[in-house]
Amino acid sequence: MENGVSSFNQFIHELSMDSDTSSVDYTSGEEDFDAGYPSSPSSHGSRISRTTSSNKYERHKTGWIMFILSWILFPIKFLLRILFHLGRMSYRRGAKASFPVHQPLHLRSIKRVHTLKDHVVHRTTDRRRGVIEDLHLAIEIVIEVVFDFFHKAAHFLLSPTEASRLANRWFSSDSSGSKDINDGVSDATVQTATIGENDPTVREKKTNLHHAMNTDARTCQDVITELGYPYEAIRVVTSDGYVLLLERIPRRDARKAVYLQHGILDSSMGWVSNGVVGSPAFAAYDQGYDVFLGNFRGLVSREHIDKNISSRQYWRYSINEHGMEDLPAIIEKIHDTKTSELKISHPDLKEEINEDQPYKLCAVCHSLGGAAMLMYVITHRIEEKPHRLSRLILLSPAGFHDDSSLVFTVFEYLFLSMAPILQHIVPGFYIPTRFFRMLLNKLARDFHNYPAVGGLVQTLMSYGVGGDSSNWVGVLGLPHFNMNDMPGVSCRVAHHLAQIKHSGKFIMYDYGNASKNMEVYGSPEPLDLGEYYKLIDIPVDLVAGREDTVIRPSMVRKHYKLMKDSGVDVSYSEFEYAHLDFTFSHREELLAYVMSRLLLVEPTPPKKQLSHKAMRSRKKGQVSS
Fold first, then answer.
1. Distance separating alpha carbons of residues 485 and 488, to the nearest angstrom
2. What radius of gyration do the chain's Cα atoms show?
3. Taking all residues of the chain, what is their mean pLDDT, rounded to a whole number?
4. CB 360 within 8 A of CB 257
5. In 3D, which of 298, 233, 312, 234 has the Cα closest to residue 266?
6. What is the per-residue pLDDT for 150?
C-alpha cells in the first residue's frame, strides 16, 4: 500500500488521471455509440413528432406505442447503457496504457515525463497484487462481460431492423473482405511482435511465469546484482550428503572476511533485504570485507546428493546437524577458497599460507544461527580441530529458553510428548505444494495492502510468539517465501528446542535412550554445552533486544554470565529491538555497532614483511656502531 491506497486502486486512479490523451477518443467513442445504437426515448419521441408522412395516423399510433414501450424499458436500458459505457471507457483506457498511441508533439513531451516518473515509481514500489485484489479484478471483468452480453442481447431484441442490417453486413463482407481482414491480422501480428521486442515490460510479462502469477520470486543473487555488487554462488556438500548454497559478495584479494548466518525460517536474504544502506552484508563489503552468506539445510526443494531422498529422511536432523555438519562444511569451503585465491593474488605469501591461516574470519549470527555457531566452536575445540574464526558477534542467540511465554511452554510439552509420533507423521513443517506457496506469497500482499487485515495478522502473529513486536507481516512478504522454494523447520529441530527449554540448559539433542547418546556423545546424557564455554578462545559479542520476547534479554544474559565465569573475552549490549529487528529492519545504531566490532579484528601483517623490517633495523644498527 502506498499512501493508504492499494495497488489496484492506485492503478485505477492512474488510469483516470490520463485525461489529456483519452478525452478526444472518448468523445469520438460517444459519437459512435450514439450513431450505432438507438437514440434515447426523448429524442426518439421528438423525432417522431417532427416527422411528416402521408399515413399520419398509422405512424402516430406506432409512435405512441414505441414511446410507451421505451419509457417502460427505460430503467433497464439506461442501466445497461451506463454499464456498457463505463466498461468501454475502462477498456479503452487500459488499451491506451498498454499500447503506444499517436499523439501530438506537446502531448508526447508531457507523456514522456509521466512515463519516466512511472518508471521510477515502478522500480521503487512493490506493485504485486494479492489474492483479494486478484478476486476483485476477476469479479469486475466477469461483471463487465456479463453486462456487455445482456446489453447487446437487449439491443438486438429492441432493434430487430438494426440486428438484421448488421447480420447482412457480416455475411456480405465475409466473402469480399476476407483477404483484407487476413492481411490486417498479419500486419497487426508483426506490429505486436515489434512492440514486444522493443518494450522490456512486455517481454518480461510473456517470458516469466512469476510475472503472469504476479508473485515475487527474487533470489539473494537478484538483490545483490541489481544493486551493482558482485556475486558468486558456491555449492557445498556436507558429510551426510546435504547440498547447501554458500553465497558470496567477493573481494578475492581481501585478507579479512565475514560469515553471516541466518536463524530459523530464514535464509541469506535476511542479510541483504534492507538494501545498500541498511544491510550488514553490503556494509561489510564496503568496509573491505570478503562477505560470505550461509544457508542452512531445510528448504522445500530438499537439495541432496540422493535425488530420490524421501521427505522423512531429508527432515531427519536437529540443531546438532546445523552445528556439526552444515557449519564445518561451509567454513572449510571458505578456508579452501580464500587460501587458493590468496596464493594467486599474493604469490609472495605462499610459504606463510602453507603454514598458517592467511586471513581473518569473523562470524555474525542471528537466533538459531548463534546457537549452532557456539556448538560448532565448542565441538571443534573438544575434538582439537581448528575452527578458523577470529570473532563471534551473536545477535539474540538461541541456546537458553527457560524464560519464555506461555505459548512456548504449551509447545514445549506438546513436542516432548508427541515428538516420536510427529516425526513419523510430520517430519518437517513447511508448505509442500507450489499452489499454496503462491497463495501465501499473494496473501502477504493482501496483509500489506489492506491495513485492517494486516493489523489482525500482525496481532495474531505477535501473540503467537509471545507478544514480540517484530514486523511479521513484512517478513512474510520477503521474496524467499515464494512459490518455487521456501525454508522450513524440521520436527527434530522443534523437539530439540523443547528439550533445551525443558532442561534449562544448552544441551545437544537427546536421542531418548542411553545407548544412542553413549554412541554419539560418549555419555548416557547429551552434552551440556554451557559447561564447555571455557573452551571458547575467541572474543564474543552478545547482543539482546529489550522488546524481544522470542529470546528474552534474560536468556542472552545467561550466555554472558556463563562465558564471563569461564574466562571468555565477552561483551554484552542491549538495544530497543524485537527479535526480527536484528536482520529485517533498518537499524543504523545496530549496524554501526556490528561494524565497530568487526573492525576490531585486523589481519596480521605477513611474516616476510616483519623479517625484512627486522633485517633492515639490524643493518642500521650495525652501520651506526
1. 10
2. 35
3. 76
4. yes
5. 298
6. 74
Residue-wise pLDDT tens digits, 9-28: 444 344 444 434 333 333 33
392 in Cβ contact with 376 (< 8 Å): no
Helix (H) / strand (E) element for 291: namely strand 290-294
- Tell me how far CA of residue 568 lies from CA of 47, 317, 545, in angstroms: 101, 30, 22
pLDDT digits (tens, 9 = 90+) for 572-581: 999 999 999 9
* pLDDT tens sequence across 280-324: 999 999 999 999 999 999 999 899 999 999 999 999 999 999 999
| Pairwise CA distance, residues 589 & 572, whole Å | 15
* Strand order from edge to edge, sheet including 391-395: 232-237, 243-249, 290-294, 256-261, 360-366, 391-395, 540-545, 570-575
Say if residues 529 and 507 touch (Cβ distance below 8 Å): yes
Task: Give the Cα separation of 464 and 473 in Å (integer).
Answer: 13
Helix (H) or strand (E) holding 292: strand 290-294
Maximum mean pLDDT: which of 20-29, 482-491, 563-572: 563-572
How far apart, in whole angstroms, are the C-alpha atoms of residue 341 and residue 326? Answer: 23
Least confident span in 344-353, 522-531, 535-544, 595-604: 344-353
Distance CA(7)–CA(127), nearest Å, equals 6
Residues whose CB falls within 8 Å of the CB of residue 566, separated by 6 or more in sequence, listed in order: 533, 534, 536
Instruction: Kindly list the distances between the CA atom of residue 326 and the CA atoms of 238, 314, 388, 393, 492, in Å, as whole numbers in the listed order.
Output: 6, 14, 15, 19, 16
Are 247 and 293 in contact by the 8 Å Cβ rule? The answer is yes
Outline which parts of the chain fall under CATH 3.40.50.1820.
229-401+529-602
| E strand or H helix at 543 | strand 540-545
- Report how far residue 300's alpha carbon sits from residue 307's, in angstroms, rounded to the nearest whole number: 13
Task: Please tell me the distance from the alpha carbon of residue 317 to that of residue 489, in angstroms, as a whole number.
Answer: 10
Would you say 244 and 296 are in contact if contact means Cβ atoms under 8 Å apart? Answer: yes
What does the CA dihedral 568, 574, 577, 578 come to, rounded to 10 degrees?
50
Q: What does the pLDDT read at residue 444?
A: 84
CATH code of the domain made up of 229-401+529-602: 3.40.50.1820
